[in-house]
Amino acid sequence: MAFAQSINGGLRRIPAWTIYIVGVIYAGWEFWRALNQMGPYLVEPINVLERSYGEVALILLVAGLAVTPLRKWSGVNLIKFRRAIGVTAFFYVLAHFLVFAILDVQSVSRVWEEIVKRPYVTVGMASFLMLIPLAVTSNNPSIRKMGAGAWRKLHKLAYPAAVLGTIHYLWLVKGFQLEPIIYCVVVLGLIATRYVPWERQRQPA
Fold first, then answer.
1. Do residues 49 and 30 make contact, with C-beta atoms less than 8 angstroms apart?
2. Burial (Cβ within 10 Å: 0-12, 13-18, ≥19) of residue 76
């Protein structure tokens, strides 16, 4: 517990808005690298950028789901960062979609065709649509207007959105790859912890 308290003490000195700043800077850096075909962007920069933004979004969704279990199990408290993590995750999902729609398929009609024709695009779009109301209501005025109970119920959409995001990734890759399977297992595991009693039974002496 002392270790967790020391970590929490350090985290208190870090403002939550730094996550937004780092997220925007990293997105801009990756876009600039893709624009100049540097590093992994030497071949098919649009496709690589699209996947890069999507993977960061998935990492942030996992991080957001991990905040509560981490606090319950280890005492490390990242609650103050959860909103910033979620909004930044949506920012990357939006960037992922815009690269796909504007730079890749380059047509509204083709975007619709891809959604209808390709299952991995269908589930990816479903995940994106679920995250929109969460991003829009991730502010204190929305909590006051909706009420805390209704707001919490709405934000449980993060669970199916994260699951669909991992399915989107799983279907997107070609052949057997371990990484999307790991994401899928981790997301399902983090969601499952919501339904496990936290209080441990005391063992008799």
1. yes
2. middle
131-141 tens-digit pLDDT: 999 999 999 99
Which among 171, 183, 177, 203 has a CA at the least distance from the CA of 56? Answer: 183
Question: Which are the contacts of 125, defined by CB distance < 8 A and separation ≥ 6?
Answer: 97, 115
Residue 201 domain flag: no
Residue-wise pLDDT for 168-201, tens only, equals 999 988 777 899 999 999 999 999 988 776 554 3
Report the number of distinct structural domains present in the chain: 1
| CA dihedral sign, ordered 52, 57, 62, 64 | positive
Kindly report the pTM of this predicted structure: 0.91
d(CA 186, CA 113) in angstroms, rounded, equals 31
Decide if 30 is inside a domain: yes
The answer as to whether 202 is a domain residue is no
pLDDT in tens, 68-102: 888 888 888 889 999 999 999 999 999 999 999 99
User: Does residue 127 contact residue 90 with C-beta atoms inside 8 Å?
Assistant: no
pLDDT at 151 > cutoff 80: yes
Query: What is the chain's length?
Result: 205
CB 101 within 8 A of CB 121: no
Name the DSSP letter for residue 137: T
Residue 49 resides in a domain: yes
Contact present, 53 and 178 (Cβ < 8 Å):
no
